[in-house]
Amino acid sequence: MSRLIVVSNRVNPPNPSEGGEGSVGGLAMALAAALREYSGIWFGWSGKTIPEFTGQLNMQRIEGVTVATVDLEETDYQEYYNGYANKTLWPLFHYRVDLTAYDRSFGEGYDRVNRRFAETLAPLIEPDDIVWVHDYHLIPVARELRRMGITNRIGFFLHIPWPAHQLVVTLPRHRQLVEALFDYDLIGFQTEESLQAFEGYVFSEVQGSKNARGELVAFGRRTCAAAFPIGVDAQDFAEIVKSDNARKTYDRMMAHSVFRKMLVGVDRLDYSKGLEERLIGYERFLHDHPEMRREVMLLQIAPISRDEVEAYQDLRSRLDGLIGRINGAYAEMDFTPIRYVNRSYRRDELAGVYRAAKAALVTPLRDGMNLVAKEYVAAQDPEDPGVLILSRFAGAARQMKDALIINPNSPEEISDALERALSMSLAERKRRWESLFDNVRREDVTAWRDDFVTALRARPGPDADEQTDEPAPVRTLDVAARALKSGPEARAMRG
């Protein structure tokens, strides 16, 4: 069997001695699961900066995974990571054009680092390897590898939303960015909505088309694009919640919330997560339901990230002020309505927190998927489950229809959902949870991994027939592609 080479901006294999993979952001968990199944290499940036780029590889074996990392120089870090990735693409792809920074040096740094990644990675690639590149940081990697003569199958998965056509065209050199994606054999998106937005750009902006095989054709090339909703290791998470550390955390949370129902939010501190809107909705709930004020408390866990980026500094200041205002207005001597924590927790600790929470608020303004929603469901007690309140703008909302789906921009909808969640009967909570957990278990990280890798392996090689305008017989690719669109039913068809 061919090796799998995973390429991501950061390399972060899980350490079981630290409670397993991180929960705030599920990329590490998903990639670790893939590399347990397939031998290969995880390649990416070490997270360290040096005075001058050398391209020297650091190879090591961590928990059965071969890891290859490279250091970047400080200019690379500022222009590629803080610049183009996090000041340009991230806000744009999350529909925040008002926060998007367009600077030519950012784009130059982005191309330079992707070229350096490709040059460092290329010697590691063997003829039968398949390469799986992850996320918006590394869109041009396949283009650079192709220029170096690499003909292996290369797939790309976008973990964040792909924005509407009208937003993409606000990006200088947007055509070159999209063209770089056509050097991949397979492009994966979290949702059908993102897939359709990408296809809309291809059809409208560059007059692309779709051939008889279902491939997108543009820029003189062809590629396959499909939706692959990412999941969590639901069974593993359900077991983690039974661990000693999870139980201790659960007991602590129950003791601190005695006589009250704890609500929880777990998000990286980011403007896309709808944290301000969530707090304003919670404030509306406290205002509208004075009889329930002393019955609830909100624990908001929000690890700080990208604190060198001004927009994140501003967000943190606004949140501090908002939480101070709400606590000042509604706190009493023995009660504070919001407990706010800016640090990360181990996965087993979060499992205990989730299980103790009577409701989870997952209210992003725009999110590719959001695995916190799925982890919360996986951690619940089947005999007394909590209620998931979920933004319609999270990719997970397409799968998790038995959550309380809300518009996070509406304080009234958040308030109403909280009142409904806290007064919901046990029978309804169990019915909703059973449906949600069934989906989380079926559409898990293994299904995501297998669907993508199977479809990538089935892509025609470099010697395949180049004819794109004639009907083609149904092949493994076609079956795999159907599986991406119809989920477990089509996977069952594959056998």
From TrEMBL:
Pathway, per record: Glycan biosynthesis; trehalose biosynthesis
Cited Gene3D superfamilies: Glycogen Phosphorylase B
GO biological process per UniProt: trehalose biosynthetic process
Keyword field contains Cell inner membrane: no
Enzyme Commission identifier(s): 2.4.1.15
Reactions the enzyme catalyzes: D-glucose 6-phosphate + UDP-alpha-D-glucose = alpha,alpha-trehalose 6-phosphate + UDP + H(+)
A GO molecular-function descriptor: alpha,alpha-trehalose-phosphate synthase (UDP-forming) activity
Pfam families attached to this UniProt entry: Glyco_transf_20 (PF00982)
Record keywords: Glycosyltransferase, Transferase
InterPro entries listed in its UniProt record: Glyco_trans_20 (IPR001830), Trehalose_OtsA (IPR012766)
UniProt enzyme class: transferase
Record keyword Glycosyltransferase present: yes
SUPFAM superfamilies (alphabetical): UDP-Glycosyltransferase/glycogen phosphorylase (SSF53756)
Assembly behavior: Homotetramer.
Function: Probably involved in the osmoprotection via the biosynthesis of trehalose. Catalyzes the transfer of glucose from UDP-alpha-D-glucose (UDP-Glc) to D-glucose 6-phosphate (Glc-6-P) to form trehalose-6-phosphate. Acts with retention of the anomeric configuration of the UDP-sugar donor.
Family the entry assigns: Belongs to the glycosyltransferase 20 family.
NCBIfam families the record matches: trehalose_OtsA
UniProt-recorded name of the protein: Trehalose-6-phosphate synthase
Organism per entry: Caulobacter segnis
